[in-house]
């Protein structure tokens, strides 16, 4: 009987392989991916890791493999234009599993809508982030007598105190995607969810005439005056480490940064603090990490995809993932009582009607995102570029077809 049980177990584990194209490389990201892989392997699956240097490289590699007839089993990505392009016959849908397991009821509507293309579920969430967070060193704030800022004016007053004390006030990694997130954080702080949706979702021409936009560009440039000379080209996680080690006071970054503080053994509210871009119009610009599953013909890989889908949608796995990644669980039924105070702020924001909006990563087509990122970098690096030129450039981008 014991031998029969062993054979049965080995048979059930056979034929459940996944080849995962992914780009999580920082300390916290690696822990997060290992959390998923370990849970998958504990269920009897075989995990093949196919890492890429960054998001763009992962998408390029996956696209090339699909075109070459050797698709990965799963691709880590966001529910943006790249996913929607692949969804035209190149991605497996999970409508049957979703209906069987009641997944739609467990996922916030704004997230569910992003996962579906033409009413088919083509992406599964592995966590929710927001990109309009600011992280700070508790020790530097305390030494300078700074309370957590509640307004943009208070935030810049804090930056002045940090600078006067000889610290880098804002740690910024001089990469285009890091720079544009500061600009969008200024826009959402000034305008709130309603204006954000008019500008980036509806792309209403009237929204482009608002005096909020010139002010956002002015504040964007102001942030650049508080950075350090080594900023250009620095990775986001190296930049987060400046706050972790007390070399800088604050950082604009999505809450994947929380994972880096946790990986360094720090505790929210003790060594580090967090706040959403300060405003009287609370907003939470979500970024959803997902797995998309390219169509595979091999039965082994198909079974592996099913097992991975069930693994990432397991509430217990989501809770473990959030604890190391810095994300908020995708499922609304996950127990979040043990998450730290920063994660709790995210959970509260996600659950508050009217606060959550789509980040520009999801809201805008890929080409417009790229052009806006280029514009932000040009404005950031060229002090001679006027605010008027920045606003006009953004208007031209958002009004293009």
UniProtKB/TrEMBL annotation:
Q: Where in the cell is it found?
A: Periplasm
Per the record, GO CC terms?
periplasmic space
- Major location (coarse): periplasm
Q: Does the keyword Transport apply?
A: yes
Pfam families, per database record: SBP_bac_1
Check the record and name the InterPro entries matching this protein.
Bact_solute-bd_prot1, SBP
- Alphabetically list the UniProt keywords: Periplasm, Signal, Sugar transport, Transport
Keyword Acyltransferase among record annotations? no
Q: Which family does it belong to?
A: Belongs to the bacterial solute-binding protein 1 family.
Describe its function: Part of a binding-protein-dependent transport system for a sugar.
Specify the protein name: Probable sugar-binding periplasmic protein
Q: Which organism is it from?
A: Mesorhizobium atlanticum
